[in-house]
Amino acid sequence: MLRYVVEASLQGQAETLKERTIGIEAFGRPAAYEPSDDASVRVTASEVRRRLAAHYGASGNAYPIRIVLPVGSYMPQFVRLPAPAAAPTAAAGQPPEAPPAPGVESAPSPGPPAARRHGWVWVLAAGAAVLVLLAAVLLRNRPPAATTPIRAFWAPILSSPNPVLVGGAYVPVYGPKALTPKPVHHLRDLILLPNQFVGGGDLIAAARVAALLARFHHPFRLEMGTQINFGDLRAGPAVLVGYAYTQWREIASGFRYFIATARTPFGITDRGRPTAWNLPRLGADRHTNLDYAIVSRVWDPDTRAMLLEVAGITQYGTAGAAEFVTSAGQLAAALRDAPAGWRGENLQLVLRVRVIAGAPARVRVVAAYYWPRGH
């Protein structure tokens, strides 16, 4: 926990250090984690404060800069100890200082100006050495940024200097032809309202992806539905949210795993064959307590750019998949058994998303497929 909060603070992300965020990102708690039900973060923070106090108490002035985790906060502070005060010298006409107490050495008298200058050089050199040592302690056992799971997953997208296109899908909706409210009794009273509405889960997913890109300080642009054309996909990396069976289905249909809605029940196919990952009890209102989603990170041969598709059978799966790809803890757990070269390969992950009260709660990987770029 100490390493997590210190690194987040040094990276300028101290404002994200909230109890729920730490529980999910550092402790690997599920997305439905509620701090009121699980005090792990608070208990660990208290233990960190106790151990820091004991460590610094036993080390004396060995550390000129100390890490402090204030009570009631998870934002660490870096406190520089004041330099030891120099012993005052006796002014002319005043009695000399009393001799030091037994066992206590008196400070040497200041030397000539040149000696004092050399002394300051040594002080600065020692201070620099201490700072280097402190940095080594903070970064000990920390893997290089490019090898952490979340950065490795996003590296093929972030490696491009071009802005990342984040695309959200419109949901086709039928509404009454009449502008004045009145009962609808026949299909002829309805009209298709294209390019106007977005699923709530899709909107949350796009916001999560945009927030992650902002956290990585990478430029991005957000577009919706028909505002995106094939040329946009060729201009650089893209993240398509909820596009599995909408206008870009031609791209996703060529992958091993695909969300098929041409037949019931809606579900995920494996090389065109039905699987057990389907929703047989999906109602007409599209509410469900279980969903499936696909995360595809693919170097697309047609666009010649990296494409990340995040899509569920319903909006709940899309929201759960977006939370998965933006969570360091969930990605680390899912990619722990990935093949050695997965960072530079194409991949597809099939996710099982538990839905509670209209929100994704638990996300689990049920299938994974990796293949070389260009194949």
Brief characterization of the structure:
This protein is an alpha+beta fold.
Describe this structure in words.
- It is built from 10 helices and 14 strands.
- The strands form 4 sheets. It has a 7-stranded mixed sheet with strand order 6-3-7-12-11-13-14. The protein has a 3-stranded antiparallel sheet with strand order 8-9-10, with no helix packed on it.
- It has 2 domains: about 100 residues, no CATH class; about 220 residues, no CATH class.
- The protein is elongated and about 90 Å long.
- Helix 6 packs parallel to helix 9.
- The protein is an alpha+beta fold.
What's the SSE blueprint?
Elements: H1 2-10, H2 19-25, H3 40-59, E1 65-68, E2 77-80, H4 113-139, H5 149-158, E3 164-168, E4 173-176, E5 190-193, H6 200-215, E6 220-224, H7 230-234, E7 238-241, H8 249-252, E8 257-260, E9 267-270, E10 273-278, E11 290-300, E12 305-312, H9 315-325, H10 328-334, E13 346-356, E14 359-371
Parallel strand pairs: 3-6, 3-7, 7-12
Antiparallel strand pairs: 1-2, 4-5, 8-9, 9-10, 11-12, 11-13, 13-14
